[in-house]
Write a structure and sequence with these properties.
Residues 46-196 form the HhH-GPD domain. GO terms for molecular function: 8-oxo-7,8-dihydroguanine DNA N-glycosylase activity; adenine/guanine mispair binding; iron-sulfur cluster binding; metal ion binding; oxidized purine DNA binding; purine-specific mismatch base pair DNA N-glycosylase activity. InterPro entries: DNA_glycosylase, HhH-GPD_domain, HhH_base_excis_C, MIG/MutY. This is HhH-GPD domain-containing protein. There is one protein chain. The chain is 61% helix and 0% strand. It is built from twelve helices and no strands. The longest helix is centred in the N-terminal third of the chain and has 18 residues, at 7-24. The chain is an all-alpha fold. The protein has helices spanning 7-24, 37-47, 52-65, 69-73, 77-84, 90-106, 115-120, 125-136, 146-156, 168-178, 183-196, 214-220. The chain folds into two domains: 7-26 and 141-220, Helix-hairpin-Helix base-excision DNA repair enzymes (C-terminal) (Endonuclease Iii, domain 2, Orthogonal Bundle), CATH 1.10.1670; 29-136, Hypothetical protein, domain 2 (Endonuclease III, domain 1). Helix 1 crosses helix 11 (183-196) and helix 2 runs antiparallel to helix 8.
């Protein structure tokens, strides 16, 4: 059983990552204010298992060509697969986007606030549901993927379960980290940090939290 997480360590991590993000964070079209719910959700769906820089080049034109749930729902699946080939995973993405769009058309674009109903929407899943809560409903939810998981586990300690969706320790930790008045920025900071510094092969000499990082300390011993 892991020892309880120190509130001091969590606050230290949040503050240092926000400081880093202010100076070194990335800028993407889906992080701008004033986007529609559709535009936010499409971005998060495209981002899954793909580098943000790849989607950033592709996303603006996608939104022009498919400006609404209705436009996406009425798209021929094979044509959409061809359209999505440049960003990979095109068959999975096409099916996910069209099914999601068709459901949202049925719902007249309205997103339920009840978590169980939100996750019942086809291909919504835990990650997109968290993104909806965070970005659309302004709730402190974590964008937990393999990248965020890597950063949190290195600093605070590893999870036990292979699937991050069901690991109680990682899920509880991520919610504690996201529980901040700048929850969006905390999430973006961790994702950017994972891409630029805390990579699979980390650049520990550039890390602002290395003196308290469990992984860095263990490597230094």
């Amino acid at each position: 059983m892991k020892p309880p997480l120190s509130k001091h360590s969590i606050v230290f991590f949040q503050e240092k990552l926000l400081e880093w993000f202010k100076e070194s964070g990335r800028s993407f079209p889906w992080r701008k204010k004033g986007l529609t719910q559709y535009q936010y959700i499409v971005a998060e769906t495209l981002l899954q298992r793909t580098k943000a820089e790849t989607i950033a080049k592709f996303y603006p034109q996608f939104i022009k060509d498919f400006p609404s749930w209705k436009a996406l729902a009425n798209t021929n699946l094979e044509k959409l697969e061809t359209y999505l080939k440049p960003v990979g995973l095109y068959k999975q993405r096409s099916k996910r986007l069209v099914s999601l769009a068709q459901e949202m058309v049925k719902r007249k674009g309205r997103l339920p606030k009840e978590r169980s109903e939100l996750e019942s929407i086809p291909f919504m899943g835990q990650y997109i549901a968290n993104a909806v809560e965070l970005i659309i409903f302004n709730q402190p939810s974590p964008l937990v993927d393999v990248n965020m998981s890597r950063v949190l586990e290195r600093f605070f300690g590893p999870r036990k379960m292979a699937d991050i969706r069901y690991d109680t320790y990682l899920q509880q930790l991520s919610y504690k980290i996201a529980n901040h008045e700048q929850s969006k920025e905390i999430n973006w900071a961790i994702l950017d940090f994972a891409a630029l510094v805390c990579r699979p092969k980390p650049l520990c000499f550039m890390c602002p939290v290395n003196r308290r990082c469990k992984n860095f300390i263990s490597l230094s011993l």
